[in-house]
Amino acid sequence: MAGTTVDHLTETYRAHYRSLLGLAALLLDDTASCEDVVQEAFIRVHSARRRVRDKEKTLAYLRQTVVNLSRSALRRRILGLKLLSKPMPDMASAEEGAYDQLERDALIKAMKGLQRRQREVLVLRYFADMTEAQVAKTLGISLGSVKAYGSRGIAALRVAMGATA
């Protein structure tokens, strides 16, 4: 039968558990993680014990697995810290949200007070993010008309919303 036997692996693990734990402790910073890594190393080597053809290399396989698992644990921690250290997006306060809603309501009311063509041009131009040429084509009017309706519409909105030019 090729590979390390379960008995030999278990004996090696028991005999070297403390040194494997010490190795993990040098790489990681908390005891619980070290114990987890050493136990996971035993499980992984146990699953792959047939590949350990020389019994004398069982301890080397366990040590290498502890090192690899410790590296993986550190990478996960570093990634987690990078993700946590990103600043949280600015959240609007309740007052800002209420003020924004009032502004939106005022804008909608002012938009309803515009001439139909002015409203259409402004909605297509600024809310649908179309170019002036696209607006002209969509509405079937000239580019000059789009510019005129847009200019007059913005002027009317400034007056309706109490802004100065």
TrEMBL record:
RNA polymerase sigma-70 region domain span: 13-77
GO terms for MF: DNA binding; sigma factor activity
Protein name stated in the entry: SigE family RNA polymerase sigma factor
Organism (species): Streptomyces pacificus
InterPro entries given in the database record: RNA_pol_sigma-70-like, RNA_pol_sigma-70_dom, RNA_pol_sigma-E_actinobac, RNA_pol_sigma70_r2, RNA_pol_sigma70_r4_t2, RNA_pol_sigma_r2, RNA_pol_sigma_r3/r4-like, WH-like_DNA-bd_sf
Positions of the RNA polymerase sigma factor 70 region 4 type domain: 105-157
Entry keyword annotation includes Ribosomal protein: no
Key words of the record: DNA-binding, Sigma factor, Transcription, Transcription regulation
Similarity comment: family membership: Belongs to the sigma-70 factor family. ECF subfamily.
